[in-house]
Design a protein that fits this description.
This protein has two domains: about 65-235, Rossmann fold (3-Layer(aba) Sandwich), CATH 3.40.50.720; about 245-500, Four Helix Bundle (Hemerythrin (Met), subunit A) (Up-down Bundle), CATH 1.20.120. Helix 13 packs across helix 19 (about 420-450). The chain is built from 22 helices and ten strands. It starts with about 30 loop residues before the first helix and ends with a strand. The protein is α/β, with parallel strands linked by helices. Helices cover about 50% and strands about 10% of the residues. Strand 1 (about 65-70), helix 3 (about 70-85) and strand 2 form a beta-alpha-beta unit.
């Protein structure tokens, strides 16, 4: 995180005409407490805002905020500010044309008039238009400019300074704050309940940080301090990242899918073609994919709980919880949510593919051929009790596993997770997650049944696919069962409560104007 001193390293840029003196910029804080109960209400329509006072109850002396710009984000921002109890003045180059796009409670005027009275002004413009505001430098002196812009990837690479730093270099007499660039126009319209509440902020002064933070809280969001304005480049890079936390899990899932797909292709398609000359390449689009998906889902689910087992084993070995995990294990623990959601995706696709199998021509031809063989063999009744029981149990366990996995996926959503306390969330994600892993294991075992012990299922001397998928989950289940033993569970519980094997936790306590060193063996 950047420090306050690093803000002085801003590259020099030609400043606009500098106005003498600095105004005292303090925003009234009346609206933050009065409108706290209405912040999460979505902006339904302008008519409801005008008619229903519960949606937008404006105080007698509403704090005034300015907006420079008339684009989509500026309109959503104005609507959100109005519903939060602020008096909004919008500056536009053509106010007559754009006035009808903004809420009726917002005043739309020329840019020079819009910056006169507000102390906080949102600059909702692109970087190349900043210089057009230089003519307003006298009116903007001493005010707080909130930069909400985002550069494109090419602009981010081309410019060495952020948009906020460039704006600050054009207006050195203003206090610049970078904020709201990670919030979409849709989130502003629908309310923070349906989007991310966090608003990363960096600033050129502490005074501007406090003032804008009050506005952010009044709008129902949560300000996150990112340091001085030198951090603006990092804040502006946040929206440019495409699912940064999903890269490794997605590559892992893709790698597992490729491995198991090739493995199943060799066993189910290539081996019959090489050995018996039978062409079964028609299995590639559906059958091989449907055989691969549950393998990927099962292994990914086991990889969700394997790092927890490794972390517990590491704590038992070290005898303390106060030492950092290795970086690879720490990153693994942070990606468990993504692994679990990808596991659910593969399991759901497997269920859909399984439903589609009876609709294919292959299944119809196989049923007809089986009926012809039964007639030719003079068998009037074909019933294998063991196979019937196996398939019934197999399907039932699969449905239970998918249902439990669906519950895990739903509770991973922020809106659902925020409604649960820590004990409820831990029970669902940890206990029910382990139940889902056990059900998946039983589902896999009933599918394999006795095939692992039959030579005919070892094609090209390769074992059946399900035997490979059982390796990691069985290790996780056995390790979990081992940690339930009293000799391990009690020791692990003590370690997680602060006990250490070889060391002692030391505290410094004041005694008679001196500090005496005390040792705790908790």
């Amino acid at each position: 995180m950047a420090t306050e001193a690093s803000a002085e390293r801003r590259p020099p840029a030609p400043a606009c005409k500098e106005a003498p003196g600095m105004k005292d910029s303090t925003l009234h804080s009346q609206s933050a407490t009065k409108m706290s109960g209405e912040m999460d209400k979505p902006l339904i329509s302008r008519h409801l805002l005008d008619s229903d006072g519960s949606l937008a109850e404006v105080p007698r002396e509403a704090p005034k905020v300015g907006i420079l710009g008339s684009g989509d984000f500026a309109r959503s921002l104005a609507a959100r500010l109005v519903s939060s109890g602020f008096s909004v003045v919008v500056g536009s180059r053509n106010p007559k044309r754009t006035a009808g796009l903004f809420p009726s409670a917002a005043q739309v005027t020329f840019q020079a008039d819009a910056v006169e009275s507000p102390d906080v002004i949102f600059v909702a413009m692109f970087r190349e238009h900043y210089s057009s505001l230089c003519g307003l430098s006298d009116q903007l002196a001493g005010k707080i400019l909130v930069d909400v812009s985002n550069p494109t990837e090419q602009e981010h690479l081309r410019h060495h300074e952020s948009n906020a730093e460039y704006l600050a270099s054009l207006f050195p007499t203003c206090m610049v704050v970078k904020a709201f660039n990670v919030i979409s126009a849709w989130t502003l319209q629908s309310g923070p309940r349906d989007g991310n509440r966090q608003v990363p902020m960096c600033r050129s002064s502490q005074e501007s940080q406090r003032t804008v933070s009050e506005v952010v809280r009044a709008m129902g969001f949560m300000p996150v301090d990112m340091g001085s304005l030198a951090s603006a480049r990092e804040v502006e890079a946040m929206p440019l990242r495409l699912l940064p936390g999903w890269k490794v899990p997605a590559l892992l899932a893709l790698g597992l899918f490729t491995f198991f797909y090739v493995y199943n292709f060799i066993r189910d398609v290539l081996q019959p073609y090489v050995r018996d000359g039978k062409s079964k390449f028609y299995k590639l689009p559906v059958s091989v994919v449907n055989t691969t998906l549950p393998c990927v889902a099962y292994v990914l689910l086991s990889l969700v709980y394997l790092p927890g087992v490794l972390a517990a084993a590491l704590q038992l070995r070290r005898g303390t919880k106060y030492r950092r995990f290795p970086d690879w294990l720490d990153h693994w623990l942070q990606h468990r949510k993504q692994l679990g959601l990808l596991s659910f995706l593969c399991a759901a696709l497997h269920a859909l593919y399984s439903f589609c199998l009876p609709l294919g021509r292959v299944n119809r031809y196989e049923v007809v051929n089986l009926a012809i063989k039964q007639v030719l063999a003079n068998k009037s009744h074909l019933w294998i009790e063991e196979e019937v029981w196996r398939m019934e149990i197999y399907l039932s366990l699969g449905v239970l596993a998918l249902g439990t996995l669906s519950l895990l996926a739903v509770t991973s959503l922020p809106s659902i997770a925020n409604s649960l306390n820590w004990r409820e969330f831990s029970f669902v994600q940890s206990t029910l997650g382990f139940v889902a892993l056990v059900l998946s294991t039983l589902h896999t075992l009933t599918y394999g049944w006795t095939r692992a012990f039959e030579d005919s299922h070892y094609k090209f001397y390769l074992p059946p696919t399900f035997t490979l998928t059982l390796l990691v989950p069985c290790v996780v289940i056995l390790a979990k069962a081992l940690f339930l033993l009293p000799c391990f569970s009690r020791r692990l519980s003590r370690i997680r409560r602060g006990w250490e094997k070889d060391g002692a936790t030391k505290f410094l306590l004041p005694m008679d104007h001196a500090l005496a060193q005390k040792t705790s063996h908790v």
